[in-house]
C-alpha cells in the first residue's frame, strides 16, 4: 500500500492528545486499536519513519510537555512493553519466561517480573519501542503479510514534581498504548494448526473484551475481567479511574463488510461506557530540612482552615437552598415537584451538588410537563363531550319552544273563533278544505267537552265573557253527541286584530264579573246567564278585590301571577288537578305551565 503524502495519523492522534494531558495531571489513560486483521492497527500505533504513529506522537508530546511543566527537569519516565500471545504474557523488552499477572491494591493488575526501563528522552523511547517490536510475534497470513499474532501493550509511567504555592507536589500518571491483534476468520487466515490456534486465542480474548464492554455498558455489578489475560490487563483502562480512547480500524474493502460492521458495533458499545474519574494521583512532597517541614506544616494547616471555611459556606448555601425549596413546596405543588430533590442533595461536593440540582430540576420539570399535557388532553375530551350534550339539549329545547309557541298561537286563535293558523293558511290557499274543517270540528268538540266539564268559576275566571254563547252552546251540544255545523271560515281581510278583540272582550266581560264570583262556588254548574245590572249584589268580589282592579284585567292577565286578580283569575294547582280547565286545552298547558309555576 502506498503511503499518503500527508500524515493522517496526526489527525488520529487528536483523540489521544487529551489523554496525554490527563496523564500529566496525574490520571491514567489508555488508547487501543480495535479492528479486523490487516485493517491497519499496527500501522496506526507505530506508523513508519516518515509518518510516525500514535505511540510515537504520544511519547514525543509527553516528553515535550514534561519539560515544560516539571520543575527543573525533575521528572521520571518508566517504560514497559509486553505482549499477550496465546494467553501468556511475555516481556518484549527483555524476552524470557512467561509472566504471571498479580493483583496489586495500589497499582491494580501488574505483571510480576516485568522490566521497567527508565527513559530520559523521546528518542530513547523510540529505540526501546523498536527493540520491543523486533521481539513481537508476527507471522504472515493470507490476510496480512506482517500480521500481529499477539496483543502488544506499551505502558509509560510518569512521575514528576510541580510547584504549588510554596510547596511541591508529586504527580503520577500512567499511559497505556495497546495494539490489539486483529479479529479473524479461520478461512481468511490459514488452516494450519499453529495459526488457527493463535487465531482461536485472539478471537477468545477479543470475545472476552466484548463481553466486558457489554457488562460495563449494561451497568452490571460483575464484569468478567478474569476471562482472559487481555481483559485482566485492561481492567483499569476499561472500568477503573481511567480516560480511554478506542480507535476503530476498518478496511475499505467490501470483502471485509462483516468485520467492518462488527468493529463499528463494538466501537459504538464502548462509546457508552461511563467511568468515574477519581482524584488525581498527587502527593505533597515532604522537604528534608526541619525549618522547611515546619513551614510546610503551617501552610497545610492554613489550607485546611480555608477548606473548612469553604465547606461551612457551602453547607450554609445548601441550607438556604433547602429552605427556599421547602417554602416553594408549601406555596405550590408544582414547585414542590421541582424543588423536592434539592432537599436530598448531599453536601459533600460542590460540583456534584450543582449537577444533581440541575438534573433533579430538569427531571421534575419534565415530569410536570408530562402530567400537564395529560390533564390538558383529558380536559379537551371532556369539553368536546359536554359541548355535544349541550348542543343536543339546546336543539331539543328550541324544538319544544317552537311547538309551544305554535300551540299557544292556535289556542289564541280558537279563543277568538278563528281557525288554527295552519288550517287558516291551508284554507286561504284553497287546499283540502274538507279535511281542515273536520280537524277544526274535532278540536272544537274536544275543547267544548273540557269546557263543559270544568267548574263555572273556572270558566268565568278564564274569561267567561270571552267565550261567546254560541261557542259554549256548541260545546254543550257536542258533549251531548250533537254535531255542530262547521265554523264559518273568516276571510283574512275581515279578521280583527288581536288588540281590538281584546278590547272588545274586556268590554263584554266587565258587567258579568259579579256573576262570575257567584258561580265560583259550584262545580260542573251550567253555563252562567249574564245577570242584569240591578241584580248585582256588591261591587266587591268575595276575595276582596275591587271591581276597578278587575276592570283593568285583560286577557293576558290570566297568565300573570302578579295581577291583582290572580287569586280569582288563576286556576290554582289544586283546582287544576281536580277539574279539567281551560289550562288543559290543547296547546295551552304545555306553554303556560312553566309560567304559572
Ligand atoms: N494508512 C496506511 N497507509 C499505508 N499503509 C498502511 C496503512 N494502513 C495499513 N497499511 C499497511 O497495511 C498492512 C497491514 O497493516 P497492519 O499490519 O497495520 O494491519 P493490522 O490491523 O495490524 O493487522 P493484524 O491485526 O493482522 O496485525 C501493512 O503492510 C501496513 O503497512
TrEMBL record:
Family annotation (PANTHER family): CENTROMERE PROTEIN E (PTHR47968), KINESIN-LIKE PROTEIN KIF19 ISOFORM X1 (PTHR47968:SF13)
Keywords carried by this UniProt record: ATP-binding, Chloroplast, Coiled coil, Microtubule, Motor protein, Nucleotide-binding, Plastid
SUPFAM superfamilies in UniProt: P-loop containing nucleoside triphosphate hydrolases (SSF52540)
Coiled coil residues, start to end: 297-324, 355-389
Family from the record: Belongs to the TRAFAC class myosin-kinesin ATPase superfamily. Kinesin family. KIN-8 subfamily.
Positions with a binding annotation for ATP: 35-42
Organism: Ceratopteris richardii
Segments for region (Disordered): 477-545
Protein name as it appears in the record: Kinesin-like protein
A GO molecular function held by the record: microtubule binding
Signal peptide positions (record): none
